[in-house]
Write a structure and sequence with these properties.
- By secondary structure, this protein is mainly β.
- It is built from no helices and 30 strands.
- Strands 1, 10, 11, 13, 14, 15 and 17 form a seven-stranded antiparallel sheet that branches.
- β13 and β14 form a beta hairpin.
Length: about 325
């Protein structure tokens, strides 16, 4: 299971004070790991917390000030404080375990299937719970989210995508159960209404079906951004100085392929523009509709990475204009 935009450390390695490494494991009362809770630390001389987020194993680690007493707060996915204590001082690398007996965890399980009831083999499911979105890759139809029940109304939403079939479940609303929330078969039988697809070098084609923003920007008239939320598929940004139908090239265009995270590490961030020494950058606008209508573009670019490695990006976007 993957989660959108996680934060993995408290203080940076260039902190202007001595540091040690702290690892925190967060469990529920049954000693099951609790993923994606936020762990805040506050120094005695500060009122502003630094925030890190547990991974899908309920663990977070990073640097903290050595030989200091800190206030620790654990925050659930709805921004509720569910644990507070003081920790430290620590003079060496330390691991601590925190058990939360005042939370209600649940596993949300189900099967993402096609219209013919066969399993989706290339897709993902997005669950929105409180203030966060959780995403689970689907390769054999099954999905499993472990999360906390924190909404007062006990509700959450879910949407699934069949990438191969370009189909979606649409937005679905459910209520949590105490231990296991079993949703059964969730059919993806609705056509995707908008998408961005792109390819970097010989990597597999990436598809973005949601979290797409497209409008006339204040600085760049053409402004398109999309982020699937998947660690292994970075977001994409497309900028241009015109919204008229036509073909545009350097220096009036730019393509950015955002950073992605793999097991907590940031890898692969690309940018093709005149300022990065790109060789080509072409955006072809086939349609630029009114608000609520479609934008259709094709984009491509080439440059070189460090060490002279070639970088080639190409893609298309069929998206709804937001404003």
């Amino acid at each position: 299971m993957l989660e959108e935009f996680p934060i993995f450390s408290w203080w940076n390695c260039d902190a202007q004070f001595p540091t040690v490494s702290l690892t925190v494991n967060v469990f529920d009362a049954s000693r099951n790991q609790l993923p994606y809770v936020s762990v805040q630390l506050i120094r005695n001389n500060s009122t502003n917390p630094v925030i890190s987020q547990a991974d899908d194993h309920g663990q977070v680690s990073g640097l903290i000030p050595s030989n200091e007493v800190l206030t620790m707060k654990i925050i659930d996915l709805c921004s509720n404080v569910v644990y507070t204590s003081t920790i430290g001082p620590f003079s060496s690398d330390t691991t601590i375990n925190i058990v939360l007996d005042n939370v209600m965890p649940t596993n949300v399980v189900g099967n993402l299937v096609k219209c013919d009831k066969s399993k989706v083999t290339n897709g993902y499911v997005k669950l929105v719970n409180g203030n966060q979105s959780l995403i689970c890759n689907v390769t054999d139809g099954n999905f499993n989210f472990r999360t906390l029940v924190c909404n007062a109304n006990n509700n959450f939403s879910l949407i699934g995508f069949d990438i191969e079939g370009m189909q979606t479940t649409g937005d679905l609303n459910y209520s949590f159960s105490s231990a296991v929330t079993n949703l059964g078969d969730i059919p993806a039988c609705n056509s995707v209404t908008e998408f961005i697809s792109y390819k970097v070098n010989n990597d597999p084609v990436c598809y973005i079906f949601n979290n797409i923003d497209s409008h006339v920007g204040s600085y760049n008239p053409l402004y398109i951004q999309g982020n699937s939320g998947l660690f292994n598929q970075p977001g994409v940004s497309i900028y241009g100085n015109s919204t008229n139908v036509g073909t545009y090239s350097l220096p009036n265009t730019a393509i950015g392929i955002g950073f992605r995270r793999v097991q907590g590490n940031i890898v692969n961030g690309y940018s093709i523009s005149s300022s990065t020494g790109a060789q080509t950058c072409i955006i072809k606008i086939n349609k630029y509709g009114a608000v609520g209508d479609y934008i259709d573009i094709a984009f491509s670019g080439s440059s070189t990475l460090g060490g002279g490695e070639p970088l080639v990006i190409s893609g298309v976007a069929h998206i709804i204009r937001d404003n």
